[in-house]
Automatic annotation (TrEMBL):
Superkingdom of origin: Bacteria
SUPFAM superfamilies xref list: Sortase (SSF63817)
Keyword Hydrolase found: yes
Keywords: Hydrolase, Membrane, Transmembrane, Transmembrane helix
UniProt-listed InterPro entries: Sortase, Sortase_Class_E, Sortase_dom-sf, Sortase_E
Annotated Pfam families: Sortase
Organism per entry: Kitasatospora kazusensis
Annotated spans, Disordered: 57-82
Transmembrane portions of the chain: 21-45
Record's protein name: Class E sortase
């Protein structure tokens, strides 16, 4: 009879241990879920907050530098030479009305994470060195994050043919018109930022702008591109009056 009574007891102990183990596993899964949720919140929200603050401060410093008197340069043609920018330097501001009223993004040289994570649009320096807006021809190619770190190009898929893209520099407004888009391509497709972008409507050299970002949203699996061509250049007046496309 002792053995008969011991069997149910062992069964109860075994079930108790299994229940305890399942409880521990459940608690671990809940903890892992909370950690994952915090990580996602950090990636998609907190990095936006930090990047917005840093890009705002950097943009303010750039505008302040523009208001400072220019240093006298050497006499002759060299005095009118365009500026030369190094990695991380501020170039100007990108305005894309289709991304929202008052849309403005600081433009800096480079597309390394150290640059893009500051909530800016970065100018490609490789594999093709992007032409600058004032160059006689070439492709002013830019990249920005779609999610996190400012997510400046989160809604880039809303930009379509005929929309305006405006680049603001110290001395000029460069007004482009969107001529084509590429909803999805390989992240290794560097041709989209070539001097004459591959897959674009353009057949020869010109003065172009290209905006690139990741797609689909919340992934970095593919890339998308928006291409525009220069329509005109407006000189900057003392009040920095924006062109009609931004009013």
């Amino acid at each position: 009879m002792e053995k008969v009574r011991e069997a149910p007891a062992r069964g109860r102990h075994r079930r108790s241990r299994v229940a305890a183990l399942l409880g521990v596993v459940g608690e671990l899964l809940i903890t892992a879920g909370l950690v994952l949720a915090l990580f996602v919140g950090y990636s998609l929200w907190w990095t936006d907050v930090v990047a917005e603050g840093r890009s705002g401060q950097a943009g303010d410093r750039l505008r302040q530098s523009w208001s400072a008197p220019a240093r006298p340069g050497p006499p002759g043609p060299a005095a009118a030479a365009p500026p030369v920018y190094g990695a991380g330097d501020g170039v100007g501001f990108l305005h894309v009305p289709a991304l929202g009223r008052g849309n403005q993004t600081l433009i800096r040289m480079g597309t390394d994470p150290a640059v893009l994570n500051e909530g800016v649009a970065g100018v490609y320096r490789e594999p093709y060195r992007a032409a600058m807006p004032w160059d006689a021809q070439g492709n002013f190619a830019l990249a920005a994050h779609r999610d996190g770190h400012g997510a400046k190009f989160h809604d880039l898929d809303r930009v379509g043919r005929g929309d305006a893209i405006v680049v603001e520099t110290r001395d000029s407004w460069y007004v482009y018109r969107v001529d084509g888009t590429l909803p999805q391509t390989s992240k290794f497709d560097t041709g989209v930022i070539a001097p004459v972008p591959e897959g674009s409507p353009y057949q020869g050299p010109g003065r172009y702008v290209t905006l690139t970002t990741c797609t689909p949203v919340y992934t970095s699996r593919y890339r998308m591109a928006v291409w525009g061509s220069l329509v005109r250049v407006d000189a900057m007046d003392a009040r920095r009056t924006p062109p009609p496309e931004l009013r």
